[in-house]
Amino acid sequence: MTRRAPTYLVIGFPGAAAVEVARALAREGGAVRILADGADSREAEDLAGSLGGGSAAIEGSTERIDLGLPGSRYMELAAEVSVLVEVSTPGPPGSRPEGARYRAVREIVEIASVAEGLEHVIVLSHLDVAGDFAGAFAERDLDLGQGFPGPAAADRHRAERILRRHSRTAPTTVLRCGWVPGSGRGLCPLVEMLLALSDTALPQPRAGESRIHLTTVEDLAGAVVGLAGLSPEGGTRTLHLAAPGEEMGALANRVVDLARRIVPAGFDLGAGARRALRRGGERGWLPREFVKWQPFGARPESAWTERFLGDHGLAFPSLTDDALVRLVERAVEEIVGFK
Q1: Given this model, what pLDDT does residue 22 score?
Q2: Is 125's pLDDT higher than 70?
């Protein structure tokens, strides 16, 4: 029997990761459904229209019961979706209501329980679920008696527990990523933060030696597309999808060196970066707070992930020099204000 063309439900719009994933999935064929709240529905419609293949925007939210949809529309969506992808990237403290991640995953579990044709659920998590655990943190690990630097990491940990408990409703892949850097919506303004810290001492003595784990949005989208095309397995599969960590101090030095090569003479990079970050308002990213979130003790293990991806012809993420240069160039353009 011929397998029907897949229909993907993408959750996480208007975040840049969800946009990149939607575009990547559309290029593989099938239709994409983009869930977007009312304020973002017009932008989501424009994106869906550019994707073709019967793609469409759906006005709704994981903050509401049944995604905020009427009962009949909810069941129609459940009947047509074959792969559900949730890629909401972590934001700064206070950027989302407390418990939002847990409620979103509950809604994902609910629609998975009634979507009879659902083949695979792919959900983005973060390596900060390791909390303050010290030692090797393997893909299979979750509950290790760890504490958390703040409610957002604890919320993600709780959400992963719910996914594991209910993964029998549909095969589930959890992608634990590092920070997803960039200047788009929902991405981590990593370059700006490192530049803002460049002219001051790091706020914690060990911060410069802590390893920062990164996943580019392109690598994330490529992994999602590859995983969505695999024959799913039962239960929950967890992958550590992050480039091997580089010490924060060393990465900061590289970023500053690259930025100084292209910035106009006499421009104060640190002050400019702090101004760019403040444009986020009270919910913007604060460099010193970001440093506090870095896991000093946990060492994420990715051996099983690398082997699994390699066996299926998928690439393990890497933060190449070219990718870092592109990140710095885009950030400096925004900071300095030139094109």
Answers
A1: 97
A2: yes
Label residue 283 by pLDDT band (50, 70, 90): low
pLDDT in tens, 103-121: 999 999 999 999 999 999 9
Segments in 279-339 forming alpha helices (H):
287-293, 303-311, 321-336
What does the block give as tokens for 225? 């597309």
Is residue 244 within 8 A of residue 300, CB to CB? The reply is: no
What's the CATH number for 7-182+213-245+298-319?
Answer: 3.40.50.720
Contact present, 303 and 228 (Cβ < 8 Å): no
Cα gap 198→115, rounded to integer Å:
50
Amino acid at 39: A
Q: Answer whether the bond into residue 14 is a cis peptide, omega within 30°.
A: yes
Residue 311: which residues within 8 A CB-CB, separation 6 or more?
none
Does residue 339 surpass a pLDDT of 80? no
DSSP SS3 for 98: coil
Query: Is-contact 278 284, C-beta < 8 A?
Result: yes
Domain locations in the chain as residue ranges: 7-182+213-245+298-319
Residue 195 has which token pair?
Answer: 């530049």
Least confident of 85-89, 230-234, 318-322: 230-234
Start-to-end Cα distance in the chain: 53
